[in-house]
Amino acid sequence: MYKILKSNDGVTLIELITVMVLSTLLILISAVGVSAFYRKYKVISDFMELQTGAMACLQTIRNGYGFSRGEEFYGVANAREVRIVGYTDTFGGGSGIRITPPAGKDYQKSNWVSYYLEEGIIRMNYFYNGVGADSPKYIFPDRQDRERIQVTRFSVRDANAGGEYLPLGGFDSTDIPALLLVEMDARVKIRDGKHPAPDEYKTISYRTYMVKK
Question: Residue 69, class by beta-carbon neighbours within 10 Å (0-12 exposed, 13-18 middle, 19+ buried)?
Fold first, then answer.
């Protein structure tokens, strides 16, 4: 009587289908996990970008924007005169700063730079060595980010109006503030809202003092 040899090396159709189903489930689970991770990572990345941009903007206003290949900086810290311009809901406050820098030469005496809020953007205008800006510069956010990032509030006021911190030189209406309180609120869109839900944002609120030396 002959024995029939059977080979068990192959797989059945059921086993193959089972493996394919399990593989598909694992791929789907992995895809969902990667997608969730990416969304979370993007929110964190956008929020960090918002904070970094806002801090850089405040540093520019404080320390100055570089002209003449960065050799001259026009900001609050090295200003000859500082004027608060624009209007806010805060008494005595404005929505911008106009700075007159030190002048080493006669033709530099008319130089000035201003930082101000316009349509959700901190912008800079200037007159430098007889030449004015063709158009105001974007300080924060950048031009390409203005749809995602907006400055919702920019307020400047004289923090020493009543002599709280520094001796007053007088009470003349033309007194130049030496200590400024600058406040900024900004936001970045992290998710488009589906009607009727609104878009979702992450927000920041900064408050800092700037001294004219």
Answer: exposed
